């Protein structure tokens, strides 16, 4: 008997989650196809270690295709050519603050992008054959309605990013019900790693702390340090994406740690990794983080990082995923911070500066 086909197509493969998911799926024996955007410089650094030129190695486990979530014809052509058994839609303009500056573009990519893939699946006649994962987000909960947040908590999106993702969430539910598609939303809370984009707050902090450890003398400017997030490790979260597509019936799941920490705490913990205890003084925009022993100021506030509408507190309840997917968190918050600071120090030691 022929072996079961395991062919995954990933949008957003060059991003943090795309890279971990690709590693995970190749480890499970999948053939992986990824959609990458044309860029004037190389944008595949996160997956470079997985990509081997097909002319050099015999068996090819990763193939890349040029494409974009705004280009329906291109998506249709890739899906019909690849004939995937699973599609993971991770591609997005994923920065919440940037979405206030690029609201229409964000709506197009993050909202309509999901629709374009679902329609392409239908046009190829694959709706009964392919399983679809949508990268939904805890940003849907936005303004706090309930703590902790679960699959039944009402949405109240607070940014163009979150509003676009809400469209994507509901179009997935609608196509599942209307066309009997195996399509799931993973409502993932924040997840980080050494591969996190450098403009997200955790990586911004750990890169800065690495610089201080290696003797740099700089100030870290942050926005709202009172915001609280439920931060997990991306490696744990990509496993949950895969698990959602291996069930008997398609459902939506919250993936979270069940713990919340403020940005302030993330700063303190990161500095502690290099032996510095951060204390806070001043108020509001004048608040600063400093080392009492040396009276050195390391952190200041810059209004430019404030958002027009903020999400104050996210805390997820992953009970359903634990019970129904048998999903388990393996990496703790402390381990996450340790790994991020250590990897940034290592990187900076070997590279002089970030490119
Ligand atoms: P990243 O920002 O690291 O990666 C985003 C990916 O999307 C990149 O590969 C990027 O390509 C690609 N992309 C951007 N615009 C387009 C476009 N127009 N067409 C095709 N691809 C595009 O995000 P993460 O890996 O952190 O997140 C993955 C997904 O999960 C995103 O959809 C995000 O919104 C969502 N999410 C993330 C969470 C998190 O905490 N990380 C939590 C909940 C949801 P390029 O490299 O060329 O820029
Ligand atoms: P978030 O992540 O908006 O939760 O979206 P981000 O790390 O950008 O912000 C987290 C919180 O930190 C506050 N903050 C700052 N944020 C940034 N980026 N830079 C700063 O200097 C700064 N100072 C304080 C923010 O105001 C916010 O409250 C991420 C993305 O990955 C989304 O794609 C995903 O959907 C959600 O997580 C879940």
Automatic annotation (TrEMBL):
Residues 9-340 form the NAD(P)-binding domain. Pfam families: GDP_Man_Dehyd (PF16363). This is GDP-mannose 4,6-dehydratase. Belongs to the NAD(P)-dependent epimerase/dehydratase family. GDP-mannose 4,6-dehydratase subfamily. It is an enzyme of class 4 (lyase). Keywords: Lyase. Its EC number is 4.2.1.47. It comes from Dictyostelium purpureum. InterPro entries: GDP_Man_deHydtase (IPR006368), NAD(P)-bd_dom (IPR016040), NAD(P)-bd_dom_sf (IPR036291).
């Amino acid at each position: 008997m022929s072996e079961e086909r395991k062919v995954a197509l990933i949008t957003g493969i060059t991003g943090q989650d795309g890279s971990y998911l690709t590693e995970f799926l190749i480890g499970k024996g999948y053939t992986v196809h990824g959609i990458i955007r044309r860029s004037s410089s190389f944008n595949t650094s996160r997956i470079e270690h997985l990509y081997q030129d097909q002319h050099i190695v015999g068996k090819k486990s990763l193939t890349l295709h040029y494409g974009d979530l705004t280009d329906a014809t291109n998506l249709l052509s890739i899906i019909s050519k690849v004939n995937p058994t699973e599609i993971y839609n991770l591609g997005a303009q994923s920065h919440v603050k940037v979405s206030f500056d690029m609201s229409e573009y964000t709506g197009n990519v993050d909202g309509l992008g999901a629709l374009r893939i679902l329609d392409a699946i239908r046009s190829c006649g694959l709706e009964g054959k392919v399983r679809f994962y949508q990268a939904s987000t805890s940003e849907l909960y936005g303004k706090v309605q309930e703590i902790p947040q679960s699959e039944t908590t009402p949405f109240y999106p607070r940014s163009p990013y979150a509003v676009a993702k809400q469209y994507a969430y509901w179009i997935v539910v609608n196509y599942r019900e209307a066309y009997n598609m195996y399509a799931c939303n993973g409502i993932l809370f924040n997840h980080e790693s050494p591969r996190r984009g450098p403009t997200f707050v955790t990586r911004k902090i750990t890169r800065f702390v690495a610089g201080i450890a290696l003797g740099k003398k700089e100030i870290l400017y942050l926005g709202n340090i009172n915001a609280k997030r439920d931060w997990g490790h991306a490696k744990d979260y990509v496993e949950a994406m895969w698990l959602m597509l291996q069930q008997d019936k398609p459902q939506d799941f919250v993936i979270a740690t069940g713990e919340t920490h403020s940005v302030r705490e993330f700063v303190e913990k990161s500095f502690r990794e290099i032996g510095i205890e951060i204390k806070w003084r001043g108020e509001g925009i004048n608040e600063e983080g400093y080392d009492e022993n040396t009276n050195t100021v390391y952190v200041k506030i810059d209004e430019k990082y404030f958002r027009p509408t903020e999400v104050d507190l996210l805390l997820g309840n992953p009970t359903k995923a634990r019970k129904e997917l048998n999903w388990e968190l393996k990496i703790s918050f402390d381990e996450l911070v340790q790994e991020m600071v250590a990897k940034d120090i290592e990187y900076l030691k070997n590279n002089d500066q970030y490119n």
